[in-house]
Amino acid sequence: MAAQRVAIIGAGASGLCALKCCLDEGLEPTCFERSGDIGGLWRFQEQPEEGRASIYRSVIINTSKEMMCFSDFPIPDDFPNYMHHSKIMEYFRMYARRFDLLRHVRFGTSVCRVSKSPDFATTGRWEVVTESEGKQQSDVFDAVLVCTGHHTDAHLPLHAFPGLESFEGWYLHSRDYKSPRAFTGKQVVVVGTGNSGIDIAVELSHTAKQVFLSTKRGAWVMHRVAEGGYPFDFSYLSRFIQIIRSLLPLSVSNFVLERKLNARFDHSLYGLQPQHR
């Protein structure tokens, strides 16, 4: 019996491991990647590309290499605990070479449409229409894996900032931020205390005249490094810790963790103390 054909949309982190898993199962995968390279979110570009996630030059991942690596391909020992995006791309290329994945990827190919084939009721197959160099092509697959990520479209709620139309300064989404050079000597307010907001505020503080970090309801700031210099997730996301947490009341677990976080710096002292535990 012929191997089942699988279409994989996107050659980022999810697409690469999906491709490898399909090969392990004896399937016949074809990966469609609209750009000319692998990596998805983690491939840095000076200019944001339409329809693709965008990162800034200094991005370092928030997950330790022990936690983020593919289970069948450990990250090299000499790579840092928390990797710059260039090291993540290096790791992806090593992974793709090790398992010979690139020969299954069609670069420069966009997926225009995925629809049920006419005989879907009996076969469960899908019709996938792709476009490359201005030419469209239709193929039938037994399954489709959508590995396009979820950081593509910027959420910029301008209606939430009345008076912005008369603001004489410059505003942008973190998706369009690349480096601090353009902000030298300027006053900047960063809205939001997510990973990108905190990263960018810290980086701008070295070049801007003054930086304000705006948060609606405060936040608990988790540090990458825990006791003894070990990665935070490596130390606290373990079966042992999960068993202890399951035995303790939630209020006790929160109390212990909040004391630990406030030992680094008092959140209320910096106006970051949130109402939530």
Description:
By secondary structure, the chain is of the alpha/beta class. The chain has two domains: about 140 residues, FAD/NAD(P)-binding domain; about 110 residues, FAD/NAD(P)-binding domain (3-Layer(bba) Sandwich), CATH 3.50.50. It is built from eight helices and nine strands. The strands form three sheets. The chain has a four-stranded parallel beta sheet, with helices on one face. A three-stranded antiparallel beta sheet has the order 4-5-6, with no helix packed on it. The longest helix is centred in the last third of the chain and has 15 residues. About 20% of the residues are buried. One of its GO terms (biological process) is lipid metabolic process. Belongs to the FMO family.
Major beta sheet summary: 4 strands, parallel
Task: Output the CATH topology of the largest domain.
Answer: FAD/NAD(P)-binding domain
- The end-to-end distance, rounded to whole angstroms, is 56 Å
Strand coverage percent: 15-25%
Q: Low-confidence spans: pLDDT under 50, at least 5 residues?
A: none
Strands, total number: 9
Q: Tell me what the CATH architecture of the largest domain is.
A: 3-Layer(bba) Sandwich
Q: According to CATH, what is the class of the largest domain?
A: Alpha Beta
Give the SSE order as H and E letters: EHEHHEEHEEEEHEHHH
- How many helices? The count is 8
Structural class: alpha/beta
**Strand arrangement in the largest pleated sheet:** 3-2-1-7
| Overall mean pLDDT | 93
The tally of structural domains comes to 2
Morphology: globular
Q: Helical amount among residues, as a percent range?
A: 25-40%
The name of the CATH superfamily of the largest domain reads FAD/NAD(P)-binding domain
Radius of gyration: 23 Å
Protein name: Flavin-containing monooxygenase
Family: Belongs to the FMO family.
Cofactor: FAD
GO cellular component, one term: endoplasmic reticulum membrane
